[in-house]
Write a structure and sequence with these properties.
Elements (H helix, E strand, L loop, with lengths): L8 E5 L4 H12 L3 E6 L2 H13 L3 E6 L5 H15 L4 E4 L14 H32 L5 E6 L12 H21 L4 E8 L12 H14 L5 H12 L9 E4 L6
Parallel strand pairs: 1-2, 1-4, 2-3, 4-5, 5-6, 6-7
Helix pairs in contact: 1-7, 3-4, 4-5
Bound molecules: NADPH dihydro-nicotinamide-adenine-dinucleotide phosphate (NDP).
GO cellular component, one term: membrane
InterPro entries: KR_dom, NAD(P)-bd_dom_sf, SDR_fam
GO molecular function: oxidoreductase activity, acting on the CH-OH group of donors, NAD or NADP as acceptor
Length: 254
């Protein structure tokens, strides 16, 4: 039987748009108090108000997770406000595409800072609380869901450093799963294919024209809610069942 989220607390990074916002809405609908983390505070506050107006519980926390101290403070605020942390969704991410040859390496730094270091900072800060929830909480299990990508499974030309970050997230996820699974912290990776979000919009115009717009124009891409459904599935499995990997694709993306 699926577990309920009522009485649990979920922290979602990158909750100001796209997959993170949809996941926050979904976990709140399912009964979790949700902690919304990102840099755009206005967006977070609007979403928190929307969730509260619908009868849910939400806290907006402005943080740049590439800064270890801000990531730690975000986790701390969640625990101070709600007294516990049961679920961490490491969703914040950046995808800047283009060839390695002649690349703007500042873009690499930004991607690695968010997709890798941000995820590590948040995970490290959250783990003691998740372990405690798994030991003492009503469900006696806790969850980390890392939003990776199909680009964590398959590499393509032009995706080099994004591939590097997402393959890295997959490896780290499985290592951490093995480390803490017997203590009932489940660690899994969710790998979406194309989803209609702001993700591609941060790229330079030539990359959008050559690599991103043609894909979105020729594919019936997923909605953020499709991924939120996957997260909700992963974190509501019975205590004895752990989803280590979930791969969700648009049907017409080969
Ligand atoms: P969006 O661009 O819509 O969302 C990215 C989120 O990350 C935003 O909320 C943004 O908030 C947040 N973020 C970025 N940098 C930081 C930072 N330094 N600190 C805190 N938050 C940050 O894209 P998606 O919803 O698509 O992306 C979510 C995840 O899904 C990413 O990890 C992405 O790689 C992955 N993914 C997406 C796919 C797609 O096709 N869309 C496919 C496969 C995977 P803010 O700017 O307010 O800080």
């Amino acid at each position: 039987m699926a577990l309920k989220l009522t009485g649990t607390v979920a922290l979602i990074t990158g909750a100001s748009s796209g997959i993170g916002a949809a996941t926050a809405r979904r976990l709140a609908e399912d009964g979790a108090a949700v902690v919304l983390v990102a840099r755009r505070k206005d967006r977070l506050e609007d979403l928190a108000a929307e969730i509260e107006n619908a009868g849910g519980t939400a806290l907006a926390v402005e943080a740049d997770i590439t800064d270890r101290l801000q990531a730690e403070a975000a986790v701390q605020q969640a625990v101070e406000r709600f007294g516990r942390l049961d679920t961490l969704v490491n969703n914040a991410g950046l995808m800047l595409l283009g060839p390695v040859v002649g690349a703007d390496t500042e873009e690499w730094d930004r991607m690695i800072a968010v997709n890798v270091q941000g995820l590590l900072h948040t995970t490290h800060a959250a783990l003691p609380h998740l372990l405690q929830a798994a030991e003492q909480g009503p469900r006696q299990v806790a969850d980390i869901v890392n939003i990776s990508s199909i680009a964590g499974r398959v590499a393509w030309s032009g995706y080099g450093v994004y591939n590097l970050t997402k393959f890295g997230v997959n490896g780290f996820t499985e290592s951490l799963r093995q480390e803490v699974t017997r203590r009932h912290v489940r660690v899994g990776v969710l790998e979406p294919g194309g989803v209609a979000t702001e993700l591609g919009s941060h790229n330079k115009a030539e990359v959008r024209d050559a690599m991103i717009d043609p894909f979105y124009e020729s594919t019936e891409v997923l909605a953020p809610q499709d991924i939120a459904d996957g997260v909700a599935y992963m974190v509501t499995r019975p205590r004895h069942a752990s989803v280590g990997e979930l791969w969700i694709m648009p049907t017409d993306q080969a």
